[in-house]
Batch of 2 targets.
Target 1
Amino acid sequence: MDGVNRQREEQWLCPVCGAVQENHVYVCEECGYDRSADYEVFRTLVSVEGTPAREKEVVRKFKQKNPDGSIIIGEKVKGVWNGPFVKKYPSGSFYVGTYVEGKAQGELKYVDKEGKITLGQWHGDGWNGPCREFFPGGSIMEGEKKNNLWDGEGKYVSADGSVLTANWQEGRVVGKGKISYKNGAFYEGEIEDFRAAGKGMLRLPGGAVLEGVFAAGVPKGQVWIRFPHGGEYRGEWRGTSGGGGVMEGTGRFCGTFDGSLQVIYFGKWRKNAMDDSNGLLEIYTAPGEGVAYQGEIKGAGPTGRGVLYSVREGMKDPIDHEFWNKNRLKSRAVREAEQLIRRGLDYMRVTLICLEMEERVTE
């Protein structure tokens, strides 16, 4: 009797397949079950009296704790993971998917500890195929992944409503991308971190086209703007996120209207309006022929101290040193010059209306 008891102590019964194993063996030789694993049987083992369980392909659910602290809850067939599973990590992240012969395959869901959700195809050892990612802030990325990295054509929808379409290679945008903004603006150019970065073109909501160098989604430094009704601006621009911004800083506006009237302003700008204590405004009716004003300019035109010039053959001749004084008699030359300036400013105002529309949209 003591010999029989001793023999039983030296053997153990595999709870998965029912095979009898020697006590010094920790892995079942029949099904591969590791008895050192921390597990719980969630469903009663199914067997028929007189028939060893290892001969029946019964499905059993287990909870297994791994050395890295993760826990797998799923189904096994003959000791091998097969079927739906959940794998949870101590950090709070987890996978939900399907095991095929011990490996995750097909549609898989992953939620990381920050709350980002990845849904897509898992093949081999990683994400391979169509995938979507949902970020905690509300942004969404969708496209193809290869070896866990975005690869191919993809689309990124940010939380502010802008939409980026581009081609990815090894997780980075290659070539140029396109961004459509919620306010109606449209960008085409270089991309970094899902935003405009590098050389690019921005079509503003009012129809003006801006070209320049972008950083973190907004133009930086000098820009070139072409207006839909003629005219251009080269100078500084204060960009805002979402494809908006205003002319602000030093810049030069130039436009030709009615085929011959040329308007030029060089000076400082504030919120798309002239704002300089010593700006230069020139109005020409023909090459080298017209009027010029240099002095204080704010908003709609000259105001405060300044000098009015008559321009003939490119030479400036001062005709009024008290242009700021409205309560005085004016010569005919001064009155004609003022009329020409008002005419030029009217054209400028019409040209810049598209930027006024842009400012109202972004405020």
Note: Residues 332-362 form the longest helix (31 residues).
Target 2
Amino acid sequence: MNVRLTHIGTATLLLEIGSLRLLTDPVFDPAGGRYSFGYGTGGMKLTDPSIKPEAIGRIDAVLLSHDQHEDNLDRAGRALLPKVRQVITTQAGAKRLGGNALGLKTWQGTTLASNGFQIKVTALPAHHGSLGSHLIVGKTTGFLLEWNGQQNGALYISGDTVWFNGIHEIAGDTKSALPSCISAAQVSRSPDRSVSPSTPWTRSISSARLTCCA
């Protein structure tokens, strides 16, 4: 199975898995823009995306951890959403986005298909901050990707989450081997934008510091 992961910027990854092309948390604004996180907080984007949205090509689905913060869904990323086949996100996010957005409850799944190839996508527990912080920052989600022929466990996309007890649930409740994992926040610190599944700095989900593995 051909799997290619390309880091575009911040938490934005292009996942090419078989015949399916998926995108996480689309952020495509040029460098220099300011992002609002709400309640008077914000930040400035320092780098351009490695691929411009008009060059991204066909996207079968966007895996959106949350829609309420611009460092995970900025203006250019939001403009891209109507052009993709489906957006998978939180239930609250899907209500706000409308259109092609599908909201999943935690542990609820859906199936993506292209040319006879299928990936099961399951929404996973995620916390955007300490206990109770969702009342201020809103809900977020991670994702588990499963397809036939996986040899190293399911692929876990952490989303924009802190470490919390629910991370252990993911390892315990998935019936496959310990999932391979991607923490987009960690991948974004790598100088190599193309992430190889055989990269030597892999760690399993049981690690306290999530990185990328396959």
Note: The two ends are 12 Å apart (CA to CA).
